[in-house]
Amino acid sequence: MARVNNFIERSLVGALSFLKEGIFADEFAARHGFLQSLAPQIKAITTLVFIILVLFAKSIFFIACLYLQCLLLALLSKVRLGFFLKRTWIFMPLFALFIAVPAIFSVFTPGEPLLHFEVIGFTFIITRQGILGAGLFISRVITSVSYATLLSLTTKHFVLLRVLRVFKIPQVFVMVIGMCYRYIYLFMEVIENTYIAIKSRVGVRVRYAQGQHIVAWNIAQLWQRSYQLNEDVYKAMLSRGYSGEPVILNDFKTNKRDWFWLCYTLTLAIVAFYFTYWMR
């Protein structure tokens, strides 16, 4: 029983720490790196262009080159490579891997057989077309997630919200994202504090009925606190003149480096689309 409780505790604390470091880490955005020095709107545009290039690319080699460029940008932006890889190779890429695995078999992707084996009397054939299709899908997911993660790591969240408004994203949508961002952090803090409080008061061994009572009581308390916090936050925002627009001390000025980076990105996109679609 103690081992199970220790496993639950380690899993809970580890998951909360991972989310805090991965979502709310602003230390990289405050560093003096290459991407941090770019204007936020230019950085958002170029990241979007790279993601579009990845989604429309038909060559794994070209996607690999874009991924290597993303890793180089991470190094130039003073983002720890180990930290970056852990954040980009978990969740979405692994989920994409499970989706892509069935595509390698001839049942879903007929083609040239490369390998066959039998399991419980059933013959499975892996095709070359299936391997290429699955590899293309997984490489697209990994590279796209890497660019999006790099943008979020090198840009503070309220700046990203301001960039969304620059691109005429509806105000309600931006405000909801901003509130969700804050409430996710608060929710994780509540979970962590609640678990520590329960452990300090009742220990690690709890009877089933008593555990149900504790969980139900905490759900009710969380709902009451959330409702009260909602009212307090709304009144505090109104008293400070908040109208739905994030206000920051930055007017998004551009310089020669921004325009050079934008020209490089657009040139790469034009050349890539030319050789992919118009030179066939």
Annotation keywords:
mainly alpha, single chain, 280 residues, two-stranded antiparallel ribbon
Question: What would the principal axes of the Cα set say about the shape?
Answer: flat
Overall pLDDT level = 76
Helical segment count: 10
Order of helices and strands: HHHHHEEHHHHH
**Percent range of helical residues:** over 70%
Oligomer status: single chain
State the end-to-end CA separation: 64 Å
What portion of the residues fall into strands of 2 or more residues? under 5%
Radius of gyration: 24 Å
Q: Could you characterize the architecture of this molecule?
A:
This protein has 280 residues and is mostly helical. The protein has ten helices and two strands, in the order H-H-H-H-H-E-E-H-H-H-H-H. A two-stranded antiparallel sheet has the order 1-2. A hairpin with a 2-residue loop joins strand 1 (113-119) and strand 2. The mean pLDDT is 76.
Quick overview of this protein structure:
By secondary structure, the protein is mainly α.
Q: Could you outline the blueprint of secondary structure elements for this entry?
A:
Layout: H1 2-23, H2 40-56, H3 60-76, H4 81-88, H5 92-100, E1 113-119, E2 122-127, H6 128-153, H7 157-166, H8 171-202, H9 208-239, H10 256-278
